[in-house]
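Example record

One chain of 405 residues, shown exactly as stored in the release files.
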Amino acid sequence: MFNNYVILPTIQRFMNKETQRFISDNIDTDIHQLALQSIRYPLVDMPLAIRQINGKQKIKSKVPLFFNTDDILYPAQLSLEQSSSESTAKYKSSLCEGNRLVDLTGGFGVDCYFMAEKFVQVTYVERHTDLCKLARSNFKVLGRENIDVIMADSVHYLSKMDKVDWIYIDPARRSESGKKVIFLSDCEPNVSDLAPLLLEKSGKVMIKLSPMLDITAAVRELPTTSEIHIISVENECKEVLLLLNQLTDNQKKIKTINIGKTKTAQIFEFNADEEINTSVTFTSEISKYLYEPNAAVMKSGAFKLIGSRYKLNKLHTNTHLYTSGNLSIDFPGRVFEVQKVWTNSKNELKEMVSRISKANISTRNYPLSVDELRKKLKIKEGGDTYLIACTVANEKRVIVECKRV
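Predicted structure tokens for this chain:
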């Protein structure tokens, strides 16, 4: 069936000793400075060296396994930027398993590598020759023998392939001009148009989408969505995953996960209609503890449900901060112990500034930005004190002085 497709052999790339040594000696050097010094190193393949050094620098904390593995080859910078991190790839691998998986948009291969742990056979599909060669070489270096690398257009391959247990697809989220896009219809390939064919070829489909995506609009375009997973790493929203299922019902499961520095995770999950049917209590009085949901919960829009679940009072409809006299240590976000609540009066602000010379400042539903407020208060960045400027239920604006729990 696939005589027109090529399963690529391992890339054969000559790298002389001078180039290898140069890469090793300059792993932390600014690549722009290195590019200006090429005339000093005539025996060094400078374009290759710079790409390898840039790749290692970009991937060091993002994919530690690749960084710590010798002979990994790196692609152009855009492919590195678009690739998943090791922690998000491992999370995706926890969601699927079976005999066969097809990754229709292979890229740098990070997701494919980690998901292959859960399958007997995996097919990596990518239309760019260089990426295919790199992936084939890297999979061999990493000892992943159950991945076939096929160079092909994903839509054409999908139309001809046999049925499999799972399909994974990460559509490109940049326009032809290089601008990032946030709507399904602007992605390439257009997964909303492809959805019927995807589900014809597999009963289970995982789609990785931009963290800027409007989830409500995406689910409207993809009504066979059964689960929505929102992944943050160290409180920065990184990915939105949609799981499609032929047998889906109207109950959409939403799961948020925030992966911390120690790889521990904060998890909050609910059904979409729970947020609609939940009420929350508002307050103008800030109690002993202040709660700030993590980025994944914020992205999910569970602004009423998070307060209800943890028995917290919300400060304002548009201020997504919560308070309580009781400590909930398992809250999915940051928890602060309140030291003092300052009003916006000149006298109180003057007293606050006389007491606090350094603080971490943030604003929530407040007329000034962080930079504007810091400039106004003339308080330096850093320290253990947090100043959170916000609006409370009676529309008054306050600054909460607090410390992390």
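Notes: Residues 1-13 have pLDDT under 50 and may be disordered.
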